[in-house]
Amino acid sequence: MVKVIATGTFDLLHMGHIYFLKEAKKLGDELVVVVATDTTVRKLKHEPVNPESIRLELIKELKIVDDAHIGYEDDIYKIVEDIKPDIITLGFDQVHDEEKIKSELKKRKISAKVVRLPEYKEGSDLEGTRKIIGKIISAYEFQKNMEKIEGEK
């Protein structure tokens, strides 16, 4: 049985995330997802919209996911040691350095293969958390402007 890990923030779940998880699942029999902690998301990306507990529960609800966990803040490789995967998948846009990961895995005597997955190219203009946030801000600003115009009449 081949165990695959997919890691990510998974804030504002979208089709790019689903594609990533489907591609990861194709590589093995069991897909285990590691959801980044709120602290990690703040360090690497942005203030999370949804707290880690909700992001984890959303991921667990996906039928493609066999198991899911919150990662560790102090040592990102500890969860890999706990899960013991055969394959670690990286999204096309994840900032992780593959060679650095391979080196650390070797140091820890973890024999998992590291695979960078292809980019999702089938989506709409709402793919990606930042695009979704941008659309929401735009819609909010538009609504505020409309209220202001209506108030001036």
Q: What gap, in angstroms, lies between the N and C termini?
A: 68 Å
CATH architecture: 3-Layer(aba) Sandwich
What's the story with the biggest beta sheet?
A: 5 strands, parallel
Number of strands: 5
The helix content, as a percent range, equals 40-55%
What's the CATH superfamily, by name? HUPs
- Rounded to the nearest angstrom, the radius of gyration is 18 Å
3D shape: elongated
Regions with pLDDT < 50 over 5+ consecutive residues? none
| Average pLDDT taken over every residue | 87
Structural class: alpha/beta
Determine the strand fraction and express it as a percent band.
15-25%
Describe the protein.
Helices cover 44% and strands 16% of the residues. By secondary structure, it is of the alpha/beta class. It has a single domain, classed as Rossmann fold, CATH 3.40.50. It has a 5-stranded parallel beta sheet, with helices on both faces. It starts with a strand and ends with a helix.
Keywords:
single chain; 153 residues; Rossmann fold; five-stranded parallel β-sheet; 6 helices
Summed up:
With 153 residues, the protein is of the alpha/beta class. It has 6 helices and 5 strands.
Blueprint (SSEs and pairs):
Layout lengths: L2 E6 L6 H11 L4 E6 L2 H7 L7 H10 L5 E4 L7 H6 L3 E4 L7 H10 L5 E4 L12 H24 L1
Parallel strand pairs: 1-2, 1-4, 2-3, 4-5
